[in-house]
Amino acid sequence: MGKSFGNFIAMKDYITYLSVHDNSKSYQNGFNEGKKIAIWSKRGKTLISSDIFDEFIKNVHFDIVECPYDDFDGSVESKKQIRKAMERTKSFVDWFFGDQREKFRNTEIIMPLVGNNDLENRKYFTEHLKNSNYKFKGSIYHGFERDKSSLTITDVQKYKKLIQIVDNDITMDGDENKFKIFSLPARPDQVVEAVELGFDIFTGTYPYVITKKGYATIFEFENDLIKKPQYESDDDEVSKKRIKLDDTESEKLNKEDLVINLNDKKFSEDFGPLKKNCTCYSCKNFTRAYIYHLLFTKEISAHTILMIHNISNYFEFFEELRNSIENDYFNNFKKFVLNQFKRE
């Protein structure tokens, strides 16, 4: 086995994960050739075969590797297109979990679950996995339709029944403890909905996606009231109350993504922090006006400052999410988050 990627990036105490496609960008369909899968970088398209992938993994060790796959992240009318993509994924799966599995004893290979929004094709794929008796500790769902602007999933609830059926199909006796990965960037409201559907791991690409646009998150994830049982009462007005944001424009965003666009000229004289009461490095040291200036002058540090805030806010949200599960107030936490993002 090759050198550890964790050692190379000076993060040897952390788990390293290799994904074939960059889920912070839209997946480009129609460029695959035969059993080769097209991946994209700044250099353009590169065709990945099983031999190339095998050589890379042998030279660079990752703790977890996602098996190569092919699928669509938009609406697809043709079942034939979906089946072709699935057959390509199936050939990679058969290669990884068949002949090559012994070579990767120290690496967990994650099973891609593909098939777009087509239950028939999804069941066809999971039936193949069952018949082949492949053993895997985790799976990652692909093929969810994404919003073209935000790159997040269009609607988590749309796939609820499909996810439940596929989960049931791939769960064999004694395999109930498989972990499940959500592949797309996810807003906090989408995260709590996905957690209810059994997802354990999220990609963390959401802060990056909004940072590239010059946005800062302003959603809330902490409130002492949600830890009290009476928060669930229908008579409790606090549980129904939406968070009051800073200004009229932000109140409109309350119905969307709870972010502010620092490219907007109105922030040029706003000397407050990105988010009130936020304790991250960016909010302690920089103002909205300063970040607006950096974006306006195209300074690279603008995105660094925004990323520090967005990733800090997002990770603290996950910390509170884990606390809510461990301390039995997840339902209250979910309600608190969903009320902020509620569409009217």
**Unreliable residue stretches:** 233-256
Tell the overall outline: globular
Which structural category do the helix and sheet elements fall into?
Answer: alpha/beta
End-to-end distance: 54 Å
Spatial sequence of strands, sheet with the most strands: 2-6-7-8-9-10
Proportion of residues in helical segments: 40-55%
Query: Assembly type of the shown chains?
Result: single chain
Number of helices: 13
Number of strands: 12
User: How much of the residues is beta strand, in percent?
Assistant: 5-15%
Biggest sheet architecture: 6 strands, parallel
- String of helices and strands: EHEEEHEEHEHEHEHEHEHHEHHHH
Radius of gyration: 22 Å
What is the residue-mean pLDDT, rounded to a whole number?
82
Brief sketch in words of this structure:
The protein is globular, with a radius of gyration of 22 Å. It has 344 residues and is of the alpha/beta class. It has 13 helices and twelve strands.
Report what the structure shows.
This protein has helices at 5-8, 50-59, 79-99, 119-132, 160-170, 188-196, 206-212, 237-240, 248-253, 281-285, 288-296, 301-326, 330-341, and strands spanning 3-4, 17-18, 37-41, 44-48, 60-61, 64-66, 108-113, 138-141, 179-182, 201-202, 215-217, 259-261. With 344 residues, the chain is α/β, with parallel strands linked by helices. The strands form four sheets. A six-stranded parallel sheet has the order 2-6-7-8-9-10, covered by helices on one side. Strands 1-5 form a two-stranded parallel sheet. A two-stranded antiparallel sheet has the order 3-4. α6 links the parallel β9 (179-182) and β10. It is globular and about 60 Å long.
